[in-house]
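Duplicate of earlier report; HAD family hydrolase input re-posted below.
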Amino acid sequence: MESILDKSTLKNLIFDLGDVIIPIDLTAPVRNFAMLANLPEDEVRAIWKQHSIWDQYETGLIDDDAFRNHVRQLLKNDQWADEVIDTAWNTVLLDLPIERIKRIKELKSTYRLFLLSNTSPIHIRQVNRVLTGMDQPTLEELFERVFYSYDVRLMKPSPEIYRHVLAEAGLVAEETAFFDDNGANIKAAAELGIQAVHVQPPMTILNYLENI
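Output:
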């Protein structure tokens, strides 16, 4: 569900993070934890789903230490160092194309820029490490404001998270574009009057930003 942007009213751009700014592989963490635990991947995926580890962490119901301890308990390995768990968890993040960051930086002079992501603190720290290593600004420096699910205790596609962003940043929905790779997230934003753009392969965010 993709709307054509009305550039005559456009003042604000809200970006998703995963598969919009940085490519991700959602299957990688489970695959890597399965290898570490010497368990079948399907079994680890079932455990993950049953206990909603991902959602609990990304909505801030558990913190970093509780998340890591939960992983140790569920996969029955209390010897794993924090770094081992963080590294496996961060395999979801693929190489970040620097052109996307450069294009977003160019847009700062014309639009108010925001980030809205279902994510976790471990992932955000890693993305910022990658950006710093590329001599680029951190996410918090790149955008006027960042809205992380674990901070606001809400997740897309809940309408409440979009209302929260609009209210907190003082944005008018119709003057705001939202770029996300998830159809449900796009639908929820569009229903609130936001100009919602579904970023879908083989296109990347750069294609959608060409003419604004």
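The first strand starts at residue 12 and ends at 15.

Merging into the original ticket.
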